[in-house]
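Students often ask what a holo structure prediction actually looks like on paper. The answer is less mysterious than it sounds. You provide the chain, you provide the ligand, and the output is a string of discrete structure tokens encoding the 3D arrangement of the protein together with NA7.
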Amino acid sequence: MTAQERKANYDVLIIGAGIAGMYMLHRLREIGLTTRVLEAGTDVGGTWYWNRYPGARFDSESYSYGYSFSKELLEEWEWSEHFSPQPENLRYCNFVADKFDLRRDMDFNSKVTAAHFDDDANLWTLETEDGRRRSGRFLITAIGVFAKPMMPAIDGIDSFKGEAYHTATWPHDPVSFAGKRVGVIGTGATAVQLIQEVAKTAAHLNVFQRTPNWCAPLHNRPITAEEQQEIKASYDEIFKKCRASYAGFMHDSDRRRALQTDAAEREAFYEKLYGEPGFGIWMGNFRDVLVDEEANRTISEFVARKIRERVDDPAIADKLVPTNHGFGTRRVPMETRYYEVYNQDNVRLIDLRETPIERITETGIDTSADAHDLDMIVYATGFDAVTGGYSQMDIRGTGGQALTDKWADGVRTFLGLQVEGFPNMFTLVGPHNAASFCNIPRCIEQNVDWMADLMAKVKADGLARVESTADAEAEWTAHVHLMAQRMLFSKTNSWFTGINSNLEGRDQRSVLLYAGGAPGYRDKCDEVAAAGYAGMVLR
Ligand code: NA7
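The corresponding structure tokens follow.
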């Protein structure tokens, strides 16, 4: 490395210009640190920049999702729907970028391929796809949990001659389904949003389902002028409620237990939740349904009944009812007339457990039973979630140690924000961070504010190097594992537990998310800071 390169270009380099990266930049500017954001896309927005597929929208109440840090912003911005759609969400990100003049410290089309730490100079050097290098004293990753889309490992995937899209790299120009034979692979939260839209205009839609999920009604609707006034007047209460809740949502678990409630009262409560907007049925349910199998069975049976009531053909309903996991133990897809789609003549559900996909051909998808001719295939096959965004970069800490090697036998972190052996590197929304299982902007603001305090201290005290100790990391990692054990989700296969059928060696469950709740997590972060960053060495 040349002498010029060993000199830091910036105090801080941030990877990612989504919700986390934008706010982090804003806070670091206030502190007076020179900062550069490197972003793979052509503009801001992160998740809302990439995931442009029709039907994409918030599953959080819009007004609980936006930033809370600026009263002026809250006053100026108006959401048009209770659960806002992607185009509006992306407009919001642009509005924020304009308002705070964020783009002047951002480089777009700058996908980071490598990040190496220089132990002597206490410097991070980042390389982007175009071969350009930039160095910074600190590195903050703001890449979220879905930075790496996953194509399925299916033979012949490149041979298909029709249109093919992954939902997370959706074209910027409109895609029409009208009059086309469309195949959608996947039935996760993304697919459920998309399928409802495709079914409206496609000549024929084949849904290739491997594992059904427990979906619940979103009950979205426009925000009236009167409601708009109410929302603006009650932002303090909205954010207070989110702050106190387990996962940063406006819904928090009911104090009662399903198993201590009599059948009629339980049924009435489930009916109420099913009829209400948003994640209430997941996050605002009885306190035992996500931790006790018997309690969970009561809500699963209720939702199964609802599915059967909504789908005309009992044989199809059977295929749509999950059998290998209970309600809420995987991410609950939120839907608007999703189940009714299967009553339409132009829609067919293909159960891959009965007839697996054998290959993709030039003209469509072959299962063990049929050759399905298609004009378009949509891959709603998810992500290499949580850790994939890190492993796709060559991140090296002290002594040239690769992060992928460090995590080869399981993720280890301190607070989900720092990794021992990777000084001056911080992971917003990282694995083991409460933000990875949260109404994400609520937890992002906590992460960023905590980071900003630390960086203000770095500046004030002239610190060159900040890193966590091996003991602190081991203790936090053990705590994260303990918190996961009590949750039923840790016993099911999904991206929550690191399972990915499309990646070799990813068939064993691991602990990636912090399940101890956002308030407890915030308290722990605050304690660490109040104790002079206990568990970290500041030099
Ligand atoms: P998910 O939740 O990981 O869903 C991916 C879907 O794709 C799921 O139904 C998978 O079935 C299916 N899939 C993946 N690979 C294959 C192959 N090879 N063959 C057939 N089906 C396959 O991703 P989403 O994008 O829906 O959601 C991710 C998050 O984004 C979500 O949690 C929200 O927070 C926003 P499987 O269940 O593995 O059998």
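Residues 146, 152-154, 185-191, 210-211, 331, 352, 357, 380-383, 495, 501-502 surround NA7 (CB under 6 Å).
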